[in-house]
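It is worth pausing here to work through a concrete case rather than discussing structure prediction in the abstract. The textbook approach is simple: state the sequence, then state the predicted structure, then interpret. We follow exactly that order.
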Amino acid sequence: MSHATFTAETTQGLPSLVTALPGPKASAIIARDHAVLSPSYTRSYPLVAARGEGAIIEDVDGNRFLDMNAGIAVVAAGHCHPEVVRAIQEQAAQLIHMSGTDFYYENMVRLAEKLATLAPGGVPRRVYFGNSGTEAVEAALKLARYHTGRDKFIAFFGGFHGRTMGSLSLTGSKSVQKKGFGPMVPGVSHIPYAYCYRCAYNKQPDTCAVECVKVIEEQLLKTILPAEEVAAIVLEPLQGEGGYVVPPQKFFDELQAVARRHNILLIADEVQSGMGRTGKMWASEHFDFTPDILTVAKGIASGMPLSAMIARTEIMQWKPGAHASTFGGNPVAIHASLATIELLERELIDNAAKVGRFMLDRLRTWPERYANVGDVRGMGLMIGIEFIKDKQTRERHPALRDRLEQMMFERGVLVLGAGQNSMRLCPPLVITRDQAEFAMDTLEQCLREATA
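Step two, the predicted structure:
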């Protein structure tokens, strides 16, 4: 990959710590933050970012970290990729805002055309723009109800779809996200996801009858949920916050068959798994899965706030005024997205596939080699490692995961948890093999030390 304007030190760079953590400047800013910022934010460790390039983040004290989070799977093209920065600067000098829901501008049309073409299945699509993943999900819920005339939804335990009220009602990730905010939007039923390492039905992946989908027809629709009232089934093709869980192919085959039989829409939440992260543009492509509605955000514009809800043309037929957003499809964010997609198609999806394959090949041996590693799973640069106390009982070990997270930070590598006891590795798609190897070497050293 060529990033001519990146310094070799930063693009190919590795961590460099020059102060104790947090350093004096970081400590002062954190103290100010605690006085005025919402205490609802979750900060796992005291990182105060000042600048970023590629897969490297530098804090206010000059410490450099290898970012294996990508700003929570957002900066697909890396931090401050020069081509994305140039696109932002050029567009900001021409037009910053005009509100695409009330007026027209060309780059909004161009991105919609591109996304419609890229969406899985090769079917005609229309695009609605918002600012965040949760907005895209809210738009998908509204469109599904509008189109079908039905009001119920089926979602999955472990799923995360956002924190605004509609998407929060779908979310089945952590109870703290719902505590104190009830009642939820009515009409959502949750069922177990295809989490094969912890199958809710005590089956094995190679011999199961896809009970996690068959429960829809065999129990849900027969007992509490009339099929003719279900607007859509909402799922992450590769579950994110739930622990980076990868379902088997037959989960998607069966799910599409059930949806067809009952004229139920399928909504794929690709907010975290989309935009090249899994080594294909969409996680859905790995499974020949063609959703009726697709939601995308995070990696779509390499850090600029933008989301899209992409639906089959025959579904997105709502009338003017039915749904809109003042800032959705902001011209600057749109231009950043066009630059990001160009980079993804040119080289970054291939890099995600290659470096991800290299990482997974190494990590797959860990469950055999380490007593506290229960499962390793993922696709491309969306990799999860699940930590346990015991191989037989598979008792979760969140304390070990949290300890490793802190140890990695102290060694200059940024990682985050996912699910109750898993760690996610979701670096920028520009990450090099050397950087990936350094991260895995560091994690392995920390694991040995923490479990010695």
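Step three, interpretation. Confidence is low (pLDDT under 50) at residues 1-11. The chain is about 35% helix and 15% strand.
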